[in-house]
Design goal:
Elements (H helix, E strand, L loop, with lengths): L9 E5 L3 E6 L7 E4 L2 E5 L3 H9 L3 H9 L1 E4 L2 H5 L6 E3 L2 E2 L2 E2 L2 H15 L9 E5 L5 H14 L4 E6 H8 L5 E6 L4 E7 L2 E2 L5 E3 L3 H14 L10 E7 L2 E6 L7 H19 L9 H4 L5 E4 L5 E4 L2 H7 L17 H6 L3 H10 L3 H8 L2 E4 L8 H12 L8 E2 L4 H5 L1 H10 L9 E2 H7 L4 H4 L2
Parallel strand pairs: 1-9, 9-10, 11-19, 19-20
Antiparallel strand pairs: 1-2, 2-3, 4-5, 4-6, 7-8, 10-21, 11-12, 12-13, 12-14, 15-16, 17-18
């Protein structure tokens, strides 16, 4: 199909937290940026009146064209009046295609500086992707971007390939959710996939609320500036921007709290309880505005929400999420539930090949704690082995790396869904080409 070396494929993994894109055959993605967008509605006043009177298609199309979108770390880092921060992905499924196209444009044209017409595209997709979503993706890729060929691969399969296995149980702790998916011989066993709404962003929110409850206010970067009084001595001057939206303020705070979480949090060795962790030594962390905060038991409590979602009830300010958490199951329960739904013959192999991937999986001690909990709950005969790459970059980008390996294999080249096949059979043919 493709002459192998001349044209390299492009691999794009649009996650709920970050978008990763780069060339197949490389060991890390070239472009990594948040998969949220800043949006400013530039609607005139008369537009708003019209849309009230005839809330039909005309006013919708009018209001859409007036939306200005900002993509990428730099554009989002710059504060603008009335800029809302929106996410195009809800529970792993695309909710707003207009925004997704903007993200793809940014990744391909601004970051990788390529013309999509010249490169085959390998896109990673969540296990829960529906047929309509896949067909829509194929249509946009072939009709708008005119790509020569396309392949959609499941996240879990790519993670499995990245670690060189055809059969494994992939535990993907992403930003928006946590998914446990068994992969057998390169295919996801759909009936046994377990998901939970608790991901990295949820833990970040828990930490933010917990800090605010202790009277620590997280000042976003745009809300202050440093003024030098004497050489080497600075004074923080608060700035006030009344037109900043709540969602942008929250986004800016999450960036900071996410960093605190990555620096100081670690999964506790035993299930968290207030008494045994009450006199733990504090860990200092310096905020961007120069104040140093001390974080104690929260370092262990927040990560333990992954194992015991009911802990959310003890975090002040998270009342709205208690329902989400009460329906969610802990990580070890999800793993066991998923394996029990699989065929008896492959259960042993799945227990001995549990792969951790995703940004949240880089948390210290997560692997050890999961292994320990599973050993307590599984039958004696099963050999439980939780594997995770020693390298944080590889864990974070394992889906992308799997895609990079797959798209650069010689034997894979005849699997592409080509443009001529799309023109001949239509978008629904993608179900046959990319199982």
């Amino acid at each position: 199909m493709y002459g192998g070396d001349e044209v390299s494929a492009i691999v794009v993994d649009l996650g709920s937290h970050t978008c990763k894109a780069g060339y197949a055959g490389e060991d890390a993605p070239k472009a990594v940026f948040p998969s949220v967008l800043g949006s400013i509605d530039e609607m005139e006043v008369d537009d708003a009146d019209n849309s009230d009177k005839n809330s039909g298609t005309a006013s919708d199309s009018k209001s859409k064209s007036k939306r200005k979108l900002y993509v990428g770390t730099q554009d989002l880092g710059f504060r603008r009046d009335h800029m809302e921060v929106l996410s195009p992905v809800k529970d792993g499924i695309v909710a707003d295609w207009d925004m997704v196209e903007n993200i793809w444009d940014h990744a391909l044209r601004k970051c990788l500086l390529i013309d999509p017409k010249e490169h085959p595209m390998l896109l990673a997709e969540p296990c829960s992707n529906t047929q309509q979503q896949r067909e829509k993706t194929a249509e946009i890729m072939f009709e708008k971007y005119q790509v020569p060929a396309l392949f959609l691969a499941k996240n879990a399969v790519l993670t499995s390939f990245a670690s060189g296995r055809a059969t494994s149980l992939v535990v993907d702790c992403g930003g928006g959710s946590t998914t446990v998916a068994p992969v057998h011989d390169g295919y996801v066993l759909q009936k046994a996939v377990a998901t939970s709404p608790i991901g990295g962003d949820f833990l970040t929110d828990c930490l933010l609320k917990s800090l605010e409850d202790k009277g620590i206010s997280i000042k976003p970067r745009y809300a202050f500036k440093r003024k030098e009084i004497r050489a080497g001595e600075f004074q923080i001057v608060d700035l006030d921007f009344p037109n900043t939206t709540e969602s942008y303020k929250l986004y800016s705070q999450r960036v900071i709290v996410g960093d605190i979480k990555e620096c100081v949090c670690r999964a506790p060795d035993t299930p968290y309880d207030d008494t045994s962790y009450s006199n733990i030594p504090m860990t200092p962390y310096e905020l961007p505005d120069g104040q140093t905060i001390e974080i104690g038991a929260d370092r262990f409590k927040i990560p333990d929400v992954l194992f015991n979602p009911s802990l959310v009830q003890t975090i002040p300010g998270m009342e709205s999420s208690v329902e989400t958490a009460s329906s969610a199951r802990g990580l070890p329960q999800m793993v066991i539930e998923s394996i029990n739904k699989c065929d008896v013959d492959i259960r042993r192999e799945l227990f001995s090949g549990i792969l951790l991937s995703g940004g949240t999986a880089s948390m210290q001690q997560l692997k050890e704690r999961l292994e320990k909990d599973l050993l307590e709950e599984t039958p004696q005969a099963a050999r439980v082995k939780v594997l995770s790459s020693g390298n944080a970059t590889e864990r974070r980008f394992s889906v992308w790396i799997g895609g990079s390996i797959l798209a650069s294999l010689g034997s894979f080249q005849q699997m592409w869904f080509s443009k001529s096949e799309f023109e001949e059979h239509g978008a629904s043919y993608i179900q046959r080409k990319c199982p």
